[in-house]
Specification:
By secondary structure, the chain is mainly β. It has a domain of 99 residues. 6% of the residues lie in helices and 46% in strands. The strands form seven sheets. It has a four-stranded antiparallel β-sheet with strand order 1-27-26-25. The protein has a four-stranded antiparallel β-sheet with strand order 2-3-4-5, with helices on one face. The longest helix is centred in the N-terminal third of the chain and has 17 residues. The protein is globular, with a radius of gyration of 20 Å. It starts with a helix and ends in a 6-residue tail after the last helix.
């Protein structure tokens, strides 16, 4: 009964947020670094991170390893079915529909959708040990992947299974990352094959875009397409079809993130915006729907360990900037950005614990670090 009453109260609060007037432009915002409440937890407090931003003051993500959404700074737990122990809300639509993943038994996952006021999430995939993923567009279109198969949903039902690109190797696996307002879907293709020339097994990945029109998917080009140590992933797609992501590798002491952006018609290698001054690597995690802003994490490594990390903000042109917050070399990361100039992510406190954070009027807070 208490869970039902709490869910209903949260739904009322959320309704007030999403039925209000549309988001204000950046010109009317007030710069603020807002630390969001954490869900209570037994034992040591773990990291909290904002992974998506909705209308008004709605944010979604994870807190103490649990799926959560925030209205303002107030945290609301997403009710999980029995047996599930953790999860993350990864995205939210304009009308409050949320999508994410649940976890249990260390490596079992399932994708879900949830609308505040419901007594439990709706599982969209069967529990499995090969990563599940889910995303929802601004208009409420959901995409999921499980066991290497990607699907598109509308009005609560599967409308199509997303095909692999024509150039995919046999037994390739697909995952989903993002879907824009138009309905273009971004995902990644993972392949494993035997290279006869080198007599070795090659693992590779690259982004894939499924156009809203239903035309065949595009395989996006990568700098090191056939290199064994390098993978390329697409993180997000904006309403114009621009994709952001990064090339990465983790091989012994080699740790590498190279920022990448692709534009339609997806017939060229990616371009990169550069790096944040003072940091060696940059991963791009999200893009605003129409404004061109991109956010992520600027990182430097020492002998394979992260020695510094900063929340990064790129306006879409010019140098990469940093967002304020935290102290010391390891300060946090950014994972969501909106057209009304909000950024969501995590800031590390003095104990190195990540606190879920929203930067309002982010473009006015972003700065170029001094050498």
């Amino acid at each position: 009964m208490r869970k039902s009453m709490a869910a209903a109260a949260a739904a009322v609060a959320l309704a007030g947020l999403i039925t209000a007037a549309g988001p204000a432009g950046a010109a009317g915002c007030t710069p603020e670094l807002r630390t969001l409440d954490a869900l209570s937890a037994d034992g040591p407090t773990r990291s909290g991170t904002v992974h998506g931003l909705g209308r008004g003051d709605l944010a979604v993500g994870t807190s103490n390893g649990l799926p959560v959404y925030w209205t303002g700074s107030t945290a609301h737990a997403v009710p999980m079915p029995d047996g599930w122990t953790g999860g993350t809300v990864t995205s939210v639509s304009d009308n409050g529909l949320m999508a994410g993943t649940l976890t249990r038994d260390f490596d079992t996952r399932a994708a879900f959708s949830y609308r505040p006021g419901d007594t439990a999430v709706r599982l969209l995939t069967t529990p499995g040990r090969y990563g599940a993923a889910a995303a929802v567009s601004a208009t409420g279109r959901v995409v999921t992947s499980e066991n290497g198969v990607a699907k598109e949903w509308a009005n609560g039902s599967v409308v199509r299974e997303l095909p692999a690109p024509a150039d995919a190797y046999p037994n390739s696996r697909l995952s989903v990352s993002s879907v824009n307002k138009r309905g273009d879907i971004l995902g990644n293709l993972y392949s494993e094959y035997w290279n006869q020339e080198t007599d070795e097994i090659v693992l590779r990945s690259h982004p894939v875009v499924w156009p809203a029109s239903g035309y065949p998917p595009y395989s996006l080009q990568a700098w090191n397409q056939e290199a064994q140590m390098y993978s390329t992933v697409g993180s997000a797609i904006d309403n114009r079809g621009r994709v952001v992501g990064h090339e990465w590798t983790a091989w012994r002491e080699l740790q590498h993130f190279r920022p990448a952006t692709w534009k339609q018609p997806y017939d060229a290698l990616p371009t990169e915006p550069g790096r944040l001054a003072g940091e060696e690597e940059l991963s791009l995690e999200a893009t605003s729907p129409t404004g061109g802003a991109v956010v992520g994490a600027a990182v430097s490594f020492e002998e394979g360990w992260r020695k510094s990390t900063q929340p990064a903000y790129w306006p879409g042109k010019g140098p990469v900037l940093a967002l304020p917050g935290g102290s010391g070399p390891r300060r946090g990361s950014a994972h969501a950005v909106t057209d009304d100039d909000r950024v969501g992510g995590s800031v590390l406190d003095e104990n190195g614990i990540g606190r879920a954070t929203v930067w309002t009027c982010a473009s006015k807070q972003a700065f170029l670090p001094k050498p």
